[in-house]
Amino acid sequence: MADLARDIRLAVDTGKVALGYREVVKSISGSEAKAVVVASKGKKSMIDDITHMCNVAGIKVIKFDEGSMELGIICGKPYSVNAIAIIDQGNSNILNENY
Length: 99
What we know:
Order of helices and strands: HEHEHEHE
Number of strands: 4
Low-confidence stretches: none
Distance between the termini: 9 Å
CATH class: Alpha Beta
Number of helices: 4
CATH architecture: 2-Layer Sandwich
Structural class: alpha+beta
Mean pLDDT: 93
Oligomer: single chain
Shape: globular
């Protein structure tokens, strides 16, 4: 999981991402998202909605095996983050790896 966490942090720092449910939904429906990372231990209804939208749109879904608080910490935020849309991967390899 360390590689995924590193790639998430690199994408947040050097690329373009959307954090949180509303922003992720906007990026999926606006066809901006190339991949979406969801916290496995986050709010189940939100995760199910996002996963369904990604499946319909053909967007890669990456399951982060920790909770939303840990995902927020990796993103450098002092709050929980249930999902992240990767719009531009920056210097990370998150779109090229099989997570």
